[in-house]
Amino acid sequence: MADLQVELNATAEAGELDQPSVRPPEPPPISEPGPAHEPAPGPARAQDPLGRARALLAAHPVADGYSGLPWTLRGLPWYDLELGDSAVDADVPRLREGGVGAQFWSVHVPQSITGDRVLGATLEQIDLVKHVVGGHSDGLRLARTASEVADARHCGRIATLIGPARAEAIGDSLATLRALHALGLCSLTLSGTSWTGPEGLTPFGEEVVRELNRLGVLAELSGATEATAHRVLAVSKAPVLFARSGARALRDAPANLPDDLLTALGAAKGLCLVPLAAEQTGSSIHEVADHLDHVRRLAGPESVGLAGMYDTSAAHPDGLADASRYPHLVAELMDRDWPEADLARLTWGNAQRVLRGADFTARAARERRRRQAAG
């Protein structure tokens, strides 16, 4: 705990870092050229679905919504994420091979940790994330806003966002929430507290949501009760996030969402990140794609994304054993005739939109406070 350092650098303004001084080269086009412009494509170009998937991911990398790497690394005596490490699912080489451009690193702590110990363990997790990213700066870079994520990508780094964290870590204290945000927390899971439950949010719970909006921290709802989820959708001015939820209509598993909640999420322009976890979305790439189809149909193409669930206790579907396998899932969706625009939203655009929405909402709140103080 003594090593914990509070970073006081101001968050970059949205869009401030989006345009590098030297723009990286454009990736090769994904669409196949017509015969009038160049010779007919050979078999490797025309028939290779993985080649097409990798070309798309070069332009629109995966923003992976849930990684359990921090807790996994706590149990390892030694690791090297830059060169590759067989003890983890998502080292830097496999992230690059899988076309991953950003990851949310969960700082959830096990449910066996309770009471006042949750905050201390969460702080240790955040400290570990900063230490690991700092020690692997050739491949990773901390980020908390959409512009910082884009800047990391333009610099050839994989953006690392801190969160979600368990809401028990803040107890009944908005000051603790603000302190965690100052340390870089980007997302908080709203479940398992005295102010969330079967009846929804208490008045204090609603104030937590408003404070999340003011700070630019995403409200994360996987595992929350349906009443809580619907109330957060009504109260929040910023987009909300389900970081690891599939479709309950296809598989009745914990944290999966019923159709009415998926529809409400789409209407609120939130984001459902479908997990690559066999318990929730099936044991094959085909079944995962079924969940993605279902969420896209009900919530809309602007409200579906991906959660790798790598380096967690979850078993992964066949063919998706580690982070290098994302192109295989994208190839499956291409075979299902997903438009390129919807694939680009799925992998990268929707996560960026939600991060921008949180940042814009926070800046608007700061401006309101500034006007009130001046008036």
TrEMBL record:
Q: Which SUPFAM superfamilies match?
A: Metallo-dependent hydrolases
- According to the lineage, what is the superkingdom? Bacteria
Q: Return the Pfam families for the record.
A: Peptidase_M19
Stored Gene3D superfamilies: Metal-dependent hydrolases (3.20.20.140)
Region of interest called Disordered, as start-end residue ranges on this chain:
1-48
Q: What InterPro entries has UniProt attached to this entry?
A: Metal_Hydrolase, Pept_M19
Q: Where is the composition biased (Pro residues)?
A: 22-42
- State the protein's name: Dipeptidase
